[in-house]
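Figure 2 data, in text form.
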Amino acid sequence: MTFDRIAVMGAGAWGSALANAVARAGRAVTLWARDPNAAAAIADRRESPRLPGVRLDDQVAVTASIEALARAEVILLAVPAQGLRAAAQQLHRIAPARTPVIGCAKGIERDTGKFMSEVIAESIPQAIPAILSGPSFATDVARGLPTAVTLACADEPVAQALTRSLGSATFRPYHSTDIRGVEIGGAAKNVLAIAAGIVHGRGLGASASAALTTRGFAELFRFGKAFDARPETLVGLSGLGDLILTCSSPQSRNFSLGIGIGKGLTPAQAGAATKLAEGVATAAVLVRMASERSVDMPISAAVAALLEGRANVDEAIESLLTRPFRAED
């Protein structure tokens, strides 16, 4: 089983990077932009305005026609988590039966508490849902720098075929059937990266950063276990790997947002400076879902309280530093 015609829905930084990666894999790739004028400009300049300075591969066809995606054998949904349902609904009428549709957003739908694979299944019932996640910055992937990610699909032969079809010498997907585990790693790490950025922006030191990332991973792991994620997934690329990357580099929008907040900006001011940070929309729903399953997530709860204006930075930090002493889990 091989897939030779791949479509990428969403011509932002991540969508453009994935289109380049697919082209390097030797596949015919179509990049879809919602706005016809934007599609024409990207096709002419061979560059996405969201990824300046990175040339779009000459083999990437750019379109604003949703009907053009009907010819694809695989569709990658490279749109933000909170906009994924609307994008998927456009595919419902044109996607052939059993087309793999790969969610590439790292988040949880805020209003429903649905994971991205659930949104795809509800919106495109004839599709095969899959998830792509892992430690990857768009610029690195677009430029062809070595990157490894996880691609999960409940149908293992399809997962294997997808990794073969999308993978290349520099873009290395590892296949899995643990969709939920892959989704949880991507969603939770964004919230935790905001906390890591706050620690950095506040100048609390490298020791505090290491402690925050480690205890944050404990939260991610507990949450994953509550949703039957596999331990090996949570300690793999899409869990621990992505957390390490996102909690350590200003290239991460969530980490950069946290830096701004740590330096005294309001969440709104920091958000305006960093644009889309998926953790902002995910924090509250992540904490709500954790509470429903009695999962203790103090760092994530502190981030949610801060983003919602229920606490300031000093109060959020104090709430963590004054927790009762306990055994490490």
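Caption note: The first helix runs from residue 13 to 24.
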